[in-house]
Amino acid sequence: MGVRQTYTENFDLIRTIEDRSKKLVAQELMKSHLYRRFISSAQVVNCYDVKEVPLWLGPPTMGKWMARGDVLPDAQSSSAAQSFWTNRYIATPLGFDVMDLWENEGNPQALFDLIDFKTMESAVSQKRALSSAIFNGLGGSQPDGLGLILETAAPAAQTQTVGGVNKATKAWWRNQYVQLTSNFGTVAAGTNLPAGILALLQLIDACTIGTLVPSDIVTTKATFANIRRAMLEMSTPYHMITDRQDAQYGVRSFMFDGHWVSWDPNCPADEVYCLHIEEKFESERTGGQDSVKLDGDLEEVATDNILDLNGGLFMITNPNVRQRALAPRTPYRQLQQTQWMVDSFNLGVFRMSDHGVSDSSGGAMWETW
Length: 369
Fold this sequence. Notes:
By secondary structure, this protein is α+β, with helices and mostly antiparallel strands.
């Protein structure tokens, strides 16, 4: 067969051409950072139906200092609640035209190539859906995405029900929020710093608990570029290049205030997320002499006890539904054979107040210098 020099989008024809590159050349590459970060680092909670998470709301009545003749304090009081989380399932179709199967019946290699191609397409489709759901899941049959869990509103104005707990009535179940009120590069009054940098510092401080700092700052590519530009404008190469790793600045990612800054193509425009995916301890946050990781009072009394001090985000899966395949079926009177790949995935949070989000009052201010 001669070389075809005519443009075509006919897949069967492309497969039969002899003098072609042996592999399809991908025309769309997209790195979904946060999904991969969850897969590699986040705590995984196995959930077969409903996962109940008991929540301790705070210390009970404080003790009473006594003097001779005083009355002992009343009975101890405390408060607890319970959140609950469920799995969400995604089914991705993997379809074959029966005509293709018939025409290649005597050519097993062609059949294997076709199956490999369709399986690859189904896997990519599923991963893209999961990567988007991290940010944009709307709840219901979809995962609870960050846009649902972390509201872009002042704590007192938050109304979403997350994990079965209503933020409108439970003040302790509200996320941190910072609003940028001018373009990122606008020099804030009384300072020589861009307004975006001040807002970012405020968001990090709001999400820092003593010496436990957020592990991830995730935003859009445009905001990421503004943060990088601000670091260059506020400093000099002499200040920035202090070791071998810093010397590769501009190739690697970078850290702001000790936090890795990353961008994800699925992140909604004009938003910055400040998250605790894993525990990150920095003693200098309280002066450099603090060896206590979380809450010193709780750490002293909660060793080997019932309390779990971890407040991070977690990933929910059903171990029985991980890349499960449903057998191929052919609908009545059709020549299309379809099978499905089914997976489970959802997000959860142990302590809502550790995490925060920021947007702007005028739209696109985070992404505008």
